[in-house]
Input
Amino acid sequence: QVQLVESGGGLVQPGGSLRLSCAASGNIFTIYTMGWYRQAPGNQRELVAATNKGGATNYADSVQGRFTISRDNGKNTVSLQMNSLKPEDTAVYYCNAVIAIVGQGPGNYWGQGTQVTVSS
Output
C-alpha cells in the first residue's frame, strides 16, 4: 500500500504565491518520478511539473519560470512553489509518483487532489 498526501492548496489573489507539498508513505522500495498535474473544470488533467530521482525537472510551458518543483528523496516528499499565480492556474492539483513497492514492480500513484483558486 502506498499513499500520497497533499497539502497547501487554497485561495490566493493574482500575482500571489502558494506552496504545495506531497508526502509518500507505505511499503516503498524506491520512487522514480514525482510530479504535479492539474485539472480545471471541463479540461483534461495536464502535467504541471515533474522531477526524476536524479533531480532533472520538466515543466509545462505555461508555468515555466513561475513554478519550481523540488524533491527530498530522504523524506519521500515533493513540493511545488507557485509564484506569480494567474487566474488560469485555478485547478485541482494532483500529486503523482511512480513507485516500486517492496517485492513488486513500479506502479503509478495519485494523491487525492488539492484545490488552488486564483481570484481577486
Q: What stands out?
A: The first strand starts at residue 2 and ends at 7.
